[in-house]
Each structure stands twice: as C-alpha cells, then as structure tokens.
Amino acid sequence: MTIHVITDETDGMYSVMCFEHPPNVGPALHMHPRGSESFHILDGQYQFLIGDKTIDAKKGDTITVPKGVSHKFNSGKDGGQFLVISPPGLENYFYELSQLLSNGIVEWNVESEIAGKYGQIFLESSNHWTSA
Question: What pTM value is reported for the model?
C-alpha cells in the first residue's frame, strides 16, 4: 500500500491510496458511512460485489461505491493493482492496522474496532482477505 494523499491535505474530504494485491484475495463485506469510495483499476481484473450487483472490472475501469452501500472485491486469478479514493480518515485504519500486524496476527475483534474508528464497518467476519 502506498498513501498518496492524506485526509488532512483535502480539508477532510478524502484520501488517495494505491494497493497491490496477490491473486484471489479481498476484504470481508463492509461499508463506509462517511463517504463514497472509488477504485481505478491499474492492473489485473477484479470482481466487485456492490449491494446486490456483481461488477467485473479490468485495467482502465473506475468503479464507485456510494456512501453507505455494502461492498467487497476479489483480486482475481492474477492479482492486480488499483488506486482508491477513500472516505476521510480511512488511511489511518490501514496505518494503525499495519503497526499491529508488524507484531503478529491481529484478532478480528481488534481489527473491527480499529475499522470502526475510521469509518469502515464490517458486515461479515468470514472471508476477510481470503478467497471471497
């Protein structure tokens, strides 16, 4: 993960990050009550579940998830990379989580609590960063 723009640089509106994913991974179903989230695919093919719709996205596509709508994605058989414009403060979730992960595995309830602090609400606890 590379953080390109932090929330403080956008008057509290959004952050911009880039993620590279290995094959067949993705987060558990979740939502963001603080704002919409947009993904611009730089490499690979992803499959998104947004609400009850499945969307296949390839290099060059941009997918936007409206504020408060449940979503998750899978990085596909070859993995991929995307740029994400995230709701405000979400970069802090990834930063705090990475600090804990450097010391070992983070328990699900701890990660869920950290996510909640930064405007990410998990709606399921299974399939988190595994084949979804």
Answer: 0.91
